[in-house]
Amino acid sequence: MHITNNVTEFVLLGLTQDPLRQKMVFFIVLIFYMGTVVGNLLIIVTIKCSRTLGSPMYFFLIHLSFADSCFSTSTAPRLIVDALSAKKVISYNECMTQVFELHLFGCMEIFVLILMAVDRYVAICKPLRYPTIMRRQVCLILIVLAWIGSFIHSTAQIILALRLPFCGPNLIDHYCCDLQPLLKLTCMDTHMINLLVVSNSGAICSSSFVFLMVSYFVILYSLRNHSAEGRKKALSTCTSHIIVVILFFGPCIFIYTRPPTTFPMDKMVAVFYTIGTPFLNPIIYTLRNTEVKNAIRKLWHIKITAE
C-alpha cells in the first residue's frame, strides 16, 4: 500500500499557550526532570557500590531506575525546551523516534515491575528455594527477555506510526508524539489502528496491572504465616512496589484502553506517568526501604570521610 505523506514536521501545541504558564511549566518540569535523573542515578550508584544490596530485587531496581530515567528523558527535555520556544516544531523523524523511545522504556518499566513482583513472591512464598530459583543467571536471562519484549512492543508501535498517512494539518494537540494524538491527524480511517493500539498497549497495561495486583494480594496473604519482624519488613517492601504500580498503571490504563476520544485531562494524565512517576519512584523506594537508606548514608559517609 502506498503511503501518502505530505508532512515533514509537526507543531506541538504543548501543555498551554499562556506565556506565564509556559514559564511555570519550564521550571516545574526542569525540577522534576533533574530530580528524576539525580534520584535514579543515586539509586543505581548506591546499589552498584554497596555490598549489602546484592539481592535480585536490587538488580531489578537498577534496571527500573535506568528505565525511569530514559522514559522521562524521552519527553521531558523537549517539553522543557518547548516551554520557552515560540514555535514548538518537531521533525517527522524526531517524532517517530519519540514514539519508539516512549514505548520502549515504558514497556520495559512494566516488565521490570513484573519481575520485581515475581522476585518478592519467590522470596516470601518460597524462601527455601529462593537462592536456586532467582540465581544470577536466571535474573540476567529475565532482564534480557524483558528488553527483547520491550523492543518488540515498541517496534510494533513504530510500524503502526510509520504507516500513517499525513496530508495536513500538522498541529499535534499534545506535548509529545504518541500514537493517539497522531491518529487524529491522519487522512484515513483509524478505527482498525486504534483497535490494534488498544489490543497492544492497552492489553499489556491492563493484563500486567491485574497480574501484579493478584501477585501482591497472594504475597500479602501469605505473610500471615511469617514472624512479626518478617511481616513488617516484607510489608514495607511490597507496599512500596504496590504504590509504584498504582501510580504508573492508573494513568497508563486511562490513556491506552479506551476508544479514540479526547478528554481535557489527557495531557496532565500523560505528564503524571511520563514525568511525575519516574520522579516519585526513587523517593518511594528510598523512603520506604531501610536497606537502601542505610546504604546511601554509608556510601556518602565513606565519600565525605575519604575527602
Automatic annotation (TrEMBL):
Its main location: membrane. It is a multi-pass membrane protein. The chain crosses the membrane at residues 24-45, 57-80, 100-118, 138-162, 201-223, 235-256, 268-287. GO terms for molecular function: G protein-coupled receptor activity; olfactory receptor activity. One of its GO terms (cellular component) is plasma membrane. Residues 39-285 form the G-protein coupled receptors family 1 profile domain. InterPro entries: GPCR_Rhodpsn, GPCR_Rhodpsn_7TM, Olfact_rcpt, Olfactory_Receptors. It is found in: Cell membrane. Keywords: Cell membrane, G-protein coupled receptor, Membrane, Olfaction, Receptor, Sensory transduction, Transducer, Transmembrane, Transmembrane helix. Belongs to the G-protein coupled receptor 1 family. This is Olfactory receptor. The gene is OR4C11.
